[in-house]
Amino acid sequence: MQLALAVVALIVIVFLTSLWLKSTTNHDEFITVPDLKGKTLGTVEIELNDNDLVMEIQDSANYNPKYPKFSVIEQYPRAGAQVKEERKIYLTLNPSGYRKVAIPNIVRRTFRQAKPTLETLGFKVGNVTYINDIGKDEVIAIKFRGKTLEAGELLPLTSKIDVVLGNGKRGSSN
Predict the structure, then answer these.
(1) Which option is the CATH number for 100-166: 3.40.140.10, 3.10.310.30, 3.30.10.20, 3.40.50.720?
(2) Residue range 53-62, pLDDT digits in tens
């Protein structure tokens, strides 16, 4: 008899616990994650609050000129996913511009060596000019917007760098 009461009590406890868990964990209640790509942080915050979701900003990614500055370029979980309320939505934001890269030491190297070095780092070669210098096609100086650059200075990726080369003639002229 006591064994039967213990079994019945155990069944009742399991049943009540299961009902309690379903009500407190919102069993079978899901929220569809909205598409946040391209939206500004203010808009995203409002949209997530309206859907009882939590925003978690991760590090910014590489700059993408197709999206506005500080807008969402990636999200996890993806748009359309079914999640519980108060779920964290991880966002990757578009930074304000391209990251900055150090200028390599290419002065007194041949243009044939310097050009691929600059392009590999993400820079673009702009105007190429020549001055009197014994080193033919040798980099004498590199410039950005008219300012002569030193190795180690930082410039945003995709910056156009002008190159001053020697023409192989003696004498110097600036």
Answers:
(1) 3.30.10.20
(2) 999 988 776 7
